[in-house]
Structures are given as structure tokens and as C-alpha cells.
Automatic annotation (TrEMBL):
Biological processes, Gene Ontology terms: DNA-templated transcription; nucleotide-excision repair; regulation of transcription by RNA polymerase II
NCBIfam families recorded: ssl1 (TIGR00622)
Ssl1-like domain location: 1-146
Cellular component GO terms, alphabetical: transcription factor TFIIH core complex; transcription factor TFIIH holo complex
Top-level division of the source organism's lineage: Eukaryota
Name under which the protein is recorded: Ssl1-like domain-containing protein
Coiled-coil portions: none
């Protein structure tokens, strides 16, 4: 979004190299930002996404105002009707219309306080949000797993309405057409082409980890005191660990702590409370 206009740099794709190369070549900014134009382009691009997919928009907004050609509230309502989830990360200060846009569409809004905080805000949007049962209809999707074409002389691959020369590529298993990258749809038969790593990433996010149970400092201190009275550790060579052993180590971040078995276990000397 520059000079009041919204420009698409790259098409929707799971290839990070394509997006990174486009962003690096278009880092300059200028003029007024139009949140309305950018949001409208994003909604037009995502409205054709099937119901089982997430329609998410992440806006990195560094301006203090938005210069729009019309009523931006109508665009926000359009995004809400098409079930597009808009999240905004502010780089300067909080802007009311950005917070309103995130609240109306069910997204998140945050303002970066520093470089590290900015990284945390952006990376917080990497895992996909939970799917709602009403939006995730059970349907089968026909997919193809193409074979990668061996590197050799340049070949022609169709991309949309044009074509480009490429070395290698992928061959559609249904019509044997050549495509440049994955995931994509075959331009001849329309088959959805993916690879097994793409499915593995999607499957990984279906089972998020359980939330941590917060423990107060007083409860942790009391548990450590009770555990120290139930255990005995001999400091001699070939020392023995007796009784049900519980060890705790206070760390600034939650980490897994391994506990010894209730049976007696020989230690190689020295005092051990817990193993991280």
C-alpha cells in the first residue's frame, strides 16, 4: 500500500522464496496509505477460498492515518460477510480504525514496542487459528502428488495466462502438464497439486498443544519444601536416591522436568535435584 494505491506483489502460494524475493525488491514506501484499498483487494482475492480454508489477512501498518476514496466501514463489513479474519500489527502507534477492523472481523491488533516485540507479534500469526465446526464442512478434495521433473534443458511452463521458461518443474499425474511450483492448480485439468510436506504441515496444526497450567510462586515454594523432606541423598561415592523423588527447578520459561523412578537408582555421585 503506497501512494494511496494497493498493488499485488505475488499470488497466493506456499513458497516462501517467492514472497521473500518480492518483498525485498519492494521495501521502499511513500505517500499516504489506503487501508480501504488494501483490504478490498485482500477480500477480493480470498472470497473464492473454499469453506474448509482459512481466510486471513495480516496487515503491517506503519502510518498514523488512512487516506481512503470511500467509506472504509463498508469494506470492513464486506470482509466480515465473506468471513475474512483481519489482523493488524502496528509499527508506529495505535490507530482506531485498525483496532475496529480487527474487532469486527475477529482478528487481533497489536502495536510493536520494539524489534523483539515486533517479531513476537508477527510470529504469533504463523500457527493457523482453530477452525469453527460450522465453517469446516466435511468434504473430500481431489488432489494429485506430482513428480519433480529432473533438472535439464529449459522447458516451458504455463503460469496463468502466460508462460515462462524454467529448469525442472513438476508434472501433473493426470494430464502430464508441467507446472512451475507447488502447491497450485493444474492449468489444464484443474487438479489440485500438492506435496506430502504441505499435508504434514496442515496435519501438525490440527492438534495444538494443551495450555500450560499456571502455578503461583507460593505453591511452587511449598511443593519444593515438602519434596525436600521426603527425599534423602547420600553424598558418598555410589550414592543412593531413596523414596519417591520429586525435583523442581525454577526457570523463567516453562520447560519439561524429568523425575526419577520410585525405585532406587544409583547416581554417579554428587547431588542431583532435577534434570532438564
Amino acid at each position: 500500500m503506497r501512494n494511496g494505491r494497493s498493488e499485488r506483489l505475488s499470488e497466493l502460494s506456499a513458497s516462501p522464496e517467492v514472497h521473500i524475493s518480492k518483498l525485498r525488491s519492494n521495501l521502499d514506501a511513500g505517500g499516504d496509505a489506503s487501508l480501504m484499498n488494501g483490504l478490498q483487494m485482500a477480500v477480493d482475492s480470498l472470497r473464492s477460498i473454499p469453506s474448509y480454508g482459512h481466510r486471513e489477512v495480516l496487515v503491517l501498518f506503519a502510518a498514523l492515518s488512512t487516506c481512503d476514496p470511500g467509506n472504509i466501514l463498508d469494506t470492513v463489513k464486506s470482509a466480515q460477510q465473506h468471513k475474512c479474519r483481519v489482523s493488524v500489527v502496528g509499527l508506529a502507534a495505535e490507530v482506531h480504525i485498525c483496532r475496529l477492523c480487527a474487532q469486527e472481523t475477529g482478528g487481533m491488533y497489536g502495536v510493536a514496542l520494539g524489534e523483539k516485540h515486533l517479531e513476537e507479534l508477527v510470529m504469533g500469526h504463523a500457527p493457523p487459528p482453530p477452525s469453527r465446526a460450522a465453517d469446516s464442512a466435511a468434504s473430500l478434495v481431489r488432489m494429485g502428488f506430482p513428480q519433480r521433473r529432473a533438472e535439464g534443458p529449459a522447458a516451458m511452463a504455463l503460469v496463468g495466462q502466460g508462460c515462462k521458461l524454467t529448469s525442472g518443474g513438476f508434472t501433473c499425474p493426470k494430464c502430464k502438464a508441467l507446472v512451475a511450483e507447488l502447491p497450485s492448480s493444474c492449468h489444464v485439468c484443474g487438479l489440485t497439486l500438492v506435496s506430502s510436506p504441505h499435508l504434514a504441515r496442515s496435519y501438525h496444526h490440527l492438534f495444538p498443544i494443551k495450555p500450560f497450567v499456571e502455578v503461583s510462586a507460593d505453591a511452587l515454594t511449598q511443593t519444593m519444601a515438602e519434596g525436600s523432606t521426603r527425599q534423602r541423598l547420600q553424598s558418598t561415592e555410589g550414592s543412593i536416591w531413596d523414596g519417591p523423588s520429586w525435583g523442581f527447578l525454577v526457570v523463567p520459561q516453562p520447560r519439561a522436568v524429568s523425575f526419577f523412578d520410585e525405585q532406587k537408582e544409583k547416581l554417579g555421585g554428587g547431588s542431583v535435584i532435577g534434570i532438564i
